[in-house]
Amino acid sequence: MKTVLSTEGIKPDQRFRMWREMLYDRIGPVEQKQIHDGPFHGRIETADVGDIRITRISESALQTEVTPTTLRQRENTETVFVLIQLAGLSGSSQDGRDAVQRPGDIIVLGGRPNIHQSSPTDRSLVLELPRDHLENFLGPTKIYTAIPVGPASPGAALTVSFFKELVGMTDNLAPDTAGRLSKIGVDLIVASIAERLAQDLPLSLYGTVVVQRAKAYVEENLGDSTLDPRQVAAAMRISLRRLQELFHSQGQHISDWIWERRLKAAGLRLSDSACNHLAIAVIAYDCGFSNPTHFSRRFKDRFGMTPREFRHVATSSV
Questions:
Q1: Which domains does the chain have, with CATH numbers?
Q2: What is the pLDDT of residue 201?
Q3: pLDDT on residue 205
């Protein structure tokens, strides 16, 4: 990671001003104030990995507030922040919920007013990513903002470990590798939040979250050619009929969703120059199609051209 600001060597009366200016450039407009006596200390390190902007922050005790005014000043309002607590304690408030984060905790703060308070020894990773990367599988962020996902969760522990390792190698990642690793990181975050939501879910949100968990399960198992609605229902621990009802309530069909995701995954791989060495049949099998002829027919119905034609058009235009 690249250190873009360290308060060491900066005059104490200039530190906080420079800190706020740098944070404005990296994170966006926020209101900040110190909540402790004494000189301010802080360090900001940055790295961009695929679609994820990663900022490692070490700071003295601060209150950071996203207000309606600062939101209107933001150029990009379609992102969400995922905070991973590395050291110290912090607290967050959003959407009527208050939470305390301890080392190893993960928390989401969406693009709405929120408050975050750090302790004098606070150190955290701030991950900024497109909001739809989470909402496509978990539903609106207001369902799970300010709900800590702790290290007792196997998924959360794996997620934290993954990002700790990732920030140590960001300087040596090729763009294609960075893109693939960022997708893995998002998948881990989604799985961790889905696992947490399943523990104490309000009844009114049950259907929405079960559908999003089912979609996340489909994503994780696209390569399994035996994946079908019955298997997804079993993984969600509900009946097939109930799963179908929940998808129908959102105007969707679970079987159609599985095929659509397989076709889109195949399309992404066919348009990825890093996969040019893979035979189309191999990509088909990897995306859960057991019959290349069946894959080619469905692909042409969906995209209007054969897989070979699609690959040629996509890779020749890069």
A1: 2-174 (2.60.120.10), 205-316 (1.10.10.60)
A2: 54
A3: 59
